[in-house]
Protein: MFS transporter
Organism: Rhodopseudomonas telluris
Amino acid sequence: MTTSSSTVAPIADTSLTGFYKDMTVPEKRTFWACATGWALDGMDFMIYPLVIGTIIALWKVDAGSAGLAGTVTLLASAVGGWAAGYLADRIGRVRTLQLTIIWFSLFSLLCAFAQNFEQLLILRALLGFGFGGEWAAGAVLIGETIRPQYRGRAVGSVQSGWAVGWGMAVLAQAALFSLLPPEQAWRWMFAIGALPALLVLYLRAYVKEPEVAAQTRARITAAGGSRSILAIFQGRILKTTILASLVATGCQGGYYAITFWVPRFLTTERKLSIVGSTGYLATLIVGSFVGYLVGAWFADRFGRRSLFLTFSLGAMVVVLAYTQLPLSNEMLWVLGFPLGFFASGYFSGMGAFLTELFPTSLRGSGQGFCYNFGRGVGALFPFLVGYLSQVTTLANAICLFAMFAYVLFFAAAYALPETRGTVLSADE
């Protein structure tokens, strides 16, 4: 198995916050730019699952079709992520990140003006291109900027921004649906999704291209050539690409099967109102946020692979309990914390892991393809859960597809090497 370098840096300070106090100014600027971008990205994505019940009611859409909109968004994001990863290798990480943020902000705003479900479906698909591209460019950018001994915690802490964005979306839902009628509130939810465009101003002023990427791109340009977009499917790197894609498929398939449909599960099978479900979602989000931070520490302390194996097993246990046991609403509220914790925490190791698996000249393409291949296949899960829920309970449908995903996640992660502490180097 090939990684980006055989050199491994020692990890002296393994505390959760130790990485931040020792970061340089450029590292901190990149950290906050990527964390903010990922938070706003998460807010944009989670808006649709939160308004899906309103869309179903207003436009008389069945659950399978409603889930299809989520699936189409994720499928488009898979294509956008691979394209953005390749673009990041060609024109730079920072420039690609700026383009993707502007793209998904624009189409989130346009979703607010959709006049029927078909228009919304198309606009969500177009939003997906930028949504997928933002992660690909941002994950490579911070992975290359942060020193190896802090990479797991820094990239993992950036990943926790997703929970912050999710929380922002839930707070916006609670406020807007309390102040406005549903037929107006859902449109304002999408309108606030244009806020990420403001982040581009910060990126342009303060965030610089990683030196290792700039050096590699300069060498390739000087040699008069460029790497093919298909280079990640050739030679020894092919095995890495396949296994990393399966890891990404399992981790995202499980996550989307759960988080996309839990709001609907609470309002239908648990008979909670939209506002009443906010507390349950808040517990899930808090668990998710803590899971990201603990996962970030775990990734540097025990390794990326150990994180994946431990958290996938934990997720399986909690999903079974959450969906299959006859729990009271109070117990379900309590169980939301470990559900969010295990179903999110493993993402903290994903960005650093994929960064360390690929050489610099192929890092954007490899990381962009693998993560977004997983996102594309995982995109089928919201649709399949919605479709299956028409013949069984939504709880059973969520459980079935989440368990399948986590078994795949565990097996593929077990087959890959540990990459903790890998030092990245410029290559040709």
Notes: The chain is about 75% helix and 0% strand.
